[in-house]
Amino acid sequence: MTSLDGLSHVRLDGGVLRIAIATADNGTSLDSTGVNQGTTALRALAAGEIAAGAVLLVGDGGNFCAGGNVRAFAGADDRAAYVLGVANELHEFVRALAAATVPVVAAVHGWAAGAGMSLVCAADVAIGGASTKMRPAYPGIGFTPDGGMSWTLPRIVGARKAREIILTDAILDAEEAVRLGVLTRIVGDDDVQAEAMTLAQSLASGPTSSYAGIKSLLARSEESSLSDQLDAEAASISAAAGGPTGREGVDAFVGKRKPDFSSAR
């Protein structure tokens, strides 16, 4: 196994790969160190060099992520080249998140703006607080989206609503974000990270191969016909039934006991 020593923004906690994508040090704007270390850790996870059953995205500071560091954009000698580099780093992280076969949970406290909102949309589950707010933020500085927002948001809220949200630079409060499906749950403001970690740890102890199959099916569903998706589901559920995780789940159900999926990995 590869150690995560030296990765200041990444740690393993109870089977959960915790990645801080923003810190108080830079006003909770997107932290390039966290993004790059997160990409490194996710690639190590995919390669089997580290073991984790879930990924947790957090912001260490007053917000989940307040967006890109606009002051850094302004100070760059070549703004176009600088922003391209930031976007490319973020996009490698988003690609690594999308490739993760384990569940990805976002703990969304405070603001999730710009790239922060994009990363909320990239998660499988997003838990917010009563005061959580989201905003595309790109039109406000004359930019266009990055971090996959132009791809993920229409798939969450629908194409027309996504156009309205991004073009008008709409601010979504927590209740509206849950109604639209951008957030999946609201808890108390002080409980966001604890609740998200509890969920991530619960998922990490669950049927990992089942989650991988579920994520694979969901990922291909957008491009598949119903008939093709039915064939994929049949193949996937058959493989699950014959595998150790599916065997343990069925045997536990019949035996009226709680399944121990850790023993089936």
TrEMBL record:
Gene3D superfamilies associated with the record: 2-enoyl-CoA Hydratase, Chain A, domain 1
Highest rank taxon of the organism: Bacteria
One Pfam family per UniProt: ECH_1
InterPro entries xref list: ClpP/crotonase-like_dom_sf, Enoyl-CoA_hydra/iso
Region (Disordered): 237-265
Protein name: Enoyl-CoA hydratase-related protein
Species of the source: Rhodococcus olei
Highest classification ranks of the organism: Bacteria, Bacillati, Actinomycetota, Actinomycetes, Mycobacteriales
